[in-house]
Design goal:
single chain, 323 residues, three-stranded antiparallel beta sheet, two-stranded antiparallel sheet, 5 strands, Lnp
Amino acid sequence: MSFLFAFFRKNKEDDYETILASLAADIQKRQTKLADIRLRERRSTLFVTLYTFIAWVVYVALWYTGALPSLAGYYRNFRVEKAVKGLPVVVGPIIILFIRRIVQIWYTRKGDAEEKTLQKLMKEQRTKVEEIKKKTNYYSTRELLQRYDENSPASSPLRQRIVVQPQGTPGTPTRPSNGGTGSAVLNTPQNQAAVPISPPQPPLGPSRKQWYDKLADAVLGDDDQARFALICEQCFAHNGLVKESVWEETQYVCPKCNHFNPSRRSNKQGIRAPPQAVGPRSPVMQVIPPTPPHVHQERQGPPTQERSEPVEPESNLMEVDQS
């Protein structure tokens, strides 16, 4: 009986697929919740700023036109009454900024707490992945394959699929190589049979932006959630954020692995120009402006006209043999 209990307990502890799937689902929920908190922060900041500003403008208009109720019952002095009525006109903008700052601090604390929980889950996920690698002898197997396998690992279809897969969503705020090591566990058939990890479901996005969100972007500036992450296709490192308008035209050199990442438009056109020599710690980023059609015609140049030598006109006379 003890053998059976130990067997079932071991299977329960080694059920890495369920553990990783649960962690991935929790991470997706936390990411969605964090995005909602950031979006609600911008909405609340916008509404508080607009409402308090409108109230201040109405008060200033009433004060300027003299429509405010008299305070003669409390203050017999006219100068004191005038100063009391004019005080909100001067202090109003300071109060607006103070209330706005309180709202931002409130949502920032909520977002920081959610982000700490998210980082904790991601760290736990990386720990589980490393534990799977050690139990399945991933590193030793990879070293043996690299040492004795005649075929290059980069030429295998599985290796190409793993490398190309992160390029499908370079704009999503994904994690670099630390978080992407989960897909590398499936390199060997031994690991595939031991841990059949199912791909995680795509996370649910935050609430759809409304017209007031666009107004908030115009008043408060662009949100980081509306930007696209630059993920290196070689080492999967995060190289900053760019705007959506220039994302497809951005090409850069990864400062960590010195790998040249062409723009999305260049990948579509099949153009992959190597960059200039760059140091390993000097990031290079370049935005390729869209080329109008007439520029391509100018680069090709005008059609060349072949020069032909003048041809002598054929004589209409026929030579007659007089012999």
